[in-house]
Design goal:
427 residues; 18 strands; elongated; transmembrane helix; Pept_M50_Zn
Length: 427
């Protein structure tokens, strides 16, 4: 149960922050957003505020911001259909009433001849009370009314396509950007709570019932040499211990200017990895001394976010290279099942470890969404860049076909990765 809750919370936070980035920048650009959804599938909660329906859906994977655009507008009006119109007296429509469940007065009943709610924004209809053919236009704030609920019709000026290239680029990039911001915030909080390990091989704490405790190591001891080799850093110390193996170590330590030599034999620490394999390493049972500060954790948080982003980007590039040279394996990827198993194991190690894992996942999500793959933010950014460079949008049919190919590609990859996860963890 803990693993399931951790998975839901982690993914809920990552998706909410990502989609919130899109929503904030879309609204700042004046783009109408009919829905902000967390999760997929049937709605389990909804609340409407400022023309946006905020929903939580059943399946805790994914989410979206539905932005007003030509392709998203669905016209419920058909030729010959009878509806009631509420106008401002100058044939400009404020409400299109699709049923009789309303309390509007002074409405006109019409029979639709022709309508367009995406480009020209008009309704040509026969007014039933006098048989006159009238062309109605839309007011800036017009609604469909059905089952006593209002659904605003997006005006041309409030649609994604109508905004400048710069506004659209910022709106699309805002999701990944917010994932980087989340990672930075989490790393910074962790540095404030835990501090940052110093680079020198200085003991911060000694674990109970370990070779270090038996040998008398204590907090503040600085490891100078191991079996005669000078120790340059904490990482170098760990490397020497692995190289020496399960043999007795002569370690020279300095504390408060006093030098002494201690002897101990490392023990094997076994760690079970999420894929079921076991990793073994030699340890002596000490932890690094932690450095703290007031401003420094902010700088460390930014540095950690950059380093993690560089590492993940490098791994992604290596993955594409492996696809090109034929060495790719689906073991390089984790789908929802694999991430769930890893999250479950990480959650068992405590809140601090789970926060760090969430920060790493957030960086990963930001980078993956910026990949130039259709259906991802990066693919849509490419289409907008094309329009900015060539001063005209890509052919609509071509763009839709590319998007469809991208969606199918992602679905196939997701199915294959999920099946590989199931085989790895459960079969």
């Amino acid at each position: 149960m803990t693993g399931i809750l951790a998975f839901i919370v982690v993914f809920g936070v990552l998706v909410t922050v990502h989609e919130l980035g899109h929503l904030i920048f879309a609204k700042r650009a004046g783009i109408m957003c009919p829905e902000f959804a967390i999760g997929m599938g049937p709605k389990i909660f909804s609340h409407k505020y400022n023309d946006t329906l905020y929903t939580v859906r059943l399946l805790p994977v994914g989410g979206y911001v539905r932005m007003a655009s030509d392709e998203m507008e669905v016209n419920p009006l058909n030729a010959g259909m009878r509806v009631q119109l509420k106008t401002d007296g100058e044939d400009r429509i404020s409400h299109i009433i699709l049923d009789d469940k309303h309390n509007f007065t002074q409405v006109e009943e019409v029979e639709v001849i022709q309508s367009d709610i995406t480009k020209e924004m008009f309704i040509k209809a026969i007014r039933l009370h006098d048989g006159e053919e009238v062309v109605y236009t839309f007011s800036d704030e017009a609604y469909f009314v059905q089952n006593s609920e209002l659904e605003r019709i997006a005006p041309r000026a409030a649609r994604f396509e109508s905004k400048s290239v710069g506004h659209r680029l910022m709106t699309l990039a805002a999701g990944p950007l917010m994932n980087f911001v989340l990672a930075f915030a989490l790393f910074t909080v962790l540095f404030y709570i835990n501090g940052k390990p110093v680079e020198e091989a200085v003991v911060g704490f000694v674990a109970e019932d370990t070779p270090a405790e038996e040998a008398g190591l204590k907090s503040g001891d600085h490891l100078e040499t191991i079996n005669g080799q000078e120790v340059d850093s904490w990482e170098h110390m760990s490397t020497i211990i692995q190289q020496e193996g399960e043999t007795e170590l002569d370690i020279t330590v300095v504390n408060d200017g006093e030098s002494r030599t201690v002897e101990m034999t490392p023990i094997v620490e076994k760690t079970e990895l999420p894929d079921g394999e076991t990793r073994e390493r030699l340890v002596i049972g000490i932890g690094a001394e932690m450095e703290r500060g007031v401003i420094s954790p902010i700088l460390w948080g930014a540095e950690q976010t950059y380093e993690m982003g560089t590492l993940i980007f490098t791994l992604v590039v290596q993955m594409f290279i492996s696809i090109a040279d034929g060495t790719f394996s689906f073991d390089m990827l984790n789908g929802p099942v694999g991430i769930y198993k890893v999250t479950e194991d990480v959650a068992a190690q405590g809140l601090m470890t789970l926060m760090r894992f969430t920060a790493i996942l957030s960086v990963n999500l930001g980078i993956m969404n910026l990949l130039p793959i259709p259906a991802l933010d990066g693919g849509r950014i490419l289409f907008v860049l094309y329009e900015g460079i060539f001063k005209k949008p890509l052919n609509r049919r071509v763009e839709l076909n590319i998007q469809l190919i991208g969606v199918l590609f992602l679905l196939i990859v997701m199915v294959l990765v999920t099946w590989n996860d199931i085989k790895t963890f459960f079969l």
